[in-house]
Write a structure and sequence with these properties.
Elements (H helix, E strand, L loop, with lengths): L13 E5 L6 H17 L3 E5 L6 H8 L7 E6 L1 H8 L11 E11 L1 E4 L8 H10 L5 E4 L5 H13 L4 E4 L3 H9 L10 H9 L4 E5 L25 E9 L4 H14 L3 H9 L2 E3 L4 H22 L5
Parallel strand pairs: 1-2, 1-3, 6-7
Antiparallel strand pairs: 3-9, 4-9, 4-10, 5-8
Length: 305
């Protein structure tokens, strides 16, 4: 009698759900990685953008998928923020998913319109302290990574500033360039063309070291915001129950992929830095990020919905 052998993974197309709209930095980098993974596996990876409800719609879709490794979640800090922001989620982020591998992190830049006449972080802080509640900052929506990064910065600068949420990053970018809001924190890669064309002025970057793309721009720590560091990060999850062998294979293949020479220049242009962790290390990292988000929400008075 013939004995059926398990086929090596993957033996059919893989679906990668992105709980965001196309065109964001996460989407661009995630697609590049999926393309190279697809080439290595010899199987198509179908990118499925499912934005909505702060990323919970696409995430819930993966939570309900079979735990066979053929439906993956490519997400980021929203995976931790949503557990704090929403009192009722259609999934349990810690119980329904298993962390596989991080992909990259992207540092941000404190950007304003040159027409505002503000030349430094110190001047921005001075304006905010002189006129409490007058200074405004934008984000890609309540509960977005940019929102929490900006709240963390506001707390670190000890200022009273007003949050202006937008439907997405492009709207916030447009309004900060038009000086309708004072500042926001786009990723360096997103803001770079506007900084180079003098439509935005960079006051500081959120990394602990200066960015190679903006060598003349100080870190926010150098600019006087003690201890401030923040980045937008993202990675790969699967429904809990996927076999350890498949998890290990995907993790190792992602790690190899993000170091491919072919991805170095695209990553550099987007100011994306590859992240390397084992599944266990990534799981611990996500838990720490979740704790950090809880602390920011409490200090900033961000209430669960």
């Amino acid at each position: 009698m013939a004995v059926a052998r398990a086929q090596p993974y993957p033996s059919k197309p893989v679906r990668a759900v992105f709980p965001i709209s196309p065109g964001s930095s996460l989407d661009i980098v995630g697609r590049l990685v999926c393309q190279k993974l697809s080439e290595a596996w010899g199987q198509q990876i179908v990118v499925d953008n499912r934005p909505g409800a702060g990323g919970t719609l696409g995430t819930a879709l993966v939570a309900r998928a079979p735990a066979d490794g053929y439906t993956l979640l490519v997400s980021g800090i929203s995976q931790t923020i949503n557990t704090v922001l929403y009192t009722q989620l259609p999934y349990n982020a810690q119980q329904d998913f298993i962390e596989i591998a991080p992909i990259a992190s992207m540092y941000q830049v404190l950007a304003i319109a040159p027409s505002q006449g503000i030349k430094s972080v110190a001047q921005l802080i001075a304006l905010a302290k002189a006129k409490p509640g007058h200074v405004t900052y934008g984000s890609a929506g309540i509960g977005s990574g940019a929102h929490f990064a900006a709240e963390k910065l506001r707390l670190a600068m000890a200022i009273d500033a007003l949050h202006v949420p937008y439907k997405g990053g492009p709207e916030a970018m447009n309004d900060v360039m038009m000086a309708r809001i004072h500042y926001w924190l786009p990723t360096i890669g997103t803001a770079l063309p506007f900084i180079q064309s003098n439509r935005l002025l960079a006051l500081g970057v959120t990394s602990t070291q200066r960015s190679a793309l903006l060598p003349d721009v100080p870190t926010l720590i150098e600019a006087g915001v003690a201890g401030y560091e923040e980045s937008l990060w993202f990675g790969v999850w699967a429904p809990r129950g996927v076999s350890a062998g498949i998890v290990d294979k995907i993790a190792k293949d992602v790690a190899r992929t993000i170091d491919l020479p072919a991805l170095r220049e695209p990553f550099r242009k987007l100011a994306a830095e590859p992240l390397h962790m084992t599944p266990a290390e990534f799981a611990r990292f996500v838990r720490r990020e979740n704790d950090s988000v809880k602390q920011i929400a409490k200090a900033a008075g961000i209430k669960a919905q």
